Amino acid sequence: MVLRFRPMSDWHSAGKLEEMKDRRSKLVEVAGKEIALYSIQGKFHATANFCPHRGGPLFQGNIEPGPAVRCPLHGWLFDMESGECLNIPNAKVSVFPVEIRGEEIFIQI
User: Fold this and answer.
1) CATH value at residue 44
2) What are phi and psi of 18, to 5 degrees?
């Protein structure tokens, strides 16, 4: 029997809470990855920034109930908690846990 261990993910700073005060989404770079960070009614979500269809920048997408984000290029709609595409079967974006520590936002990659 071979045991394989997956390396533990690390938490990385994604900025200060104040930077999200008047915005619902922001592009951040964390551990060399472009991440779309969202603030929805006081709760934070993070997804990969690029739509798998044509690479549309999700941080520029419309925020919709769910919460979900709609790709600004062709309208693919992604659930912010699961990453599942709600209108195209079998499509998905990566999602990342978000944690607030004091006045700083951290994302687990």
Assistant:
1) 2.102.10.10
2) -55, -30
Residue 89 is assigned to a structural domain of this protein: yes
Tens-digit pLDDT string for the chain (109 aa): 555 544 557 999 999 999 998 889 999 999 999 999 999 988 999 999 999 999 999 999 999 998 999 999 999 999 999 999 999 999 999 999 999 999 999 999 9
* Total number of domains constituting the chain: 1
Q: Is residue 9 part of a domain?
A: no
**0.90 exceeded by pTM:** no
Domain that holds residue 71: 22-108
Does residue 63 contact residue 25 with C-beta atoms inside 8 Å? yes
Question: Where does residue 58 rank: exposed (0-12), middle (13-18), buried (19+ CB within 10 A)?
Answer: buried
Q: Which pair of tokens denotes residue 25?
A: 């989404």
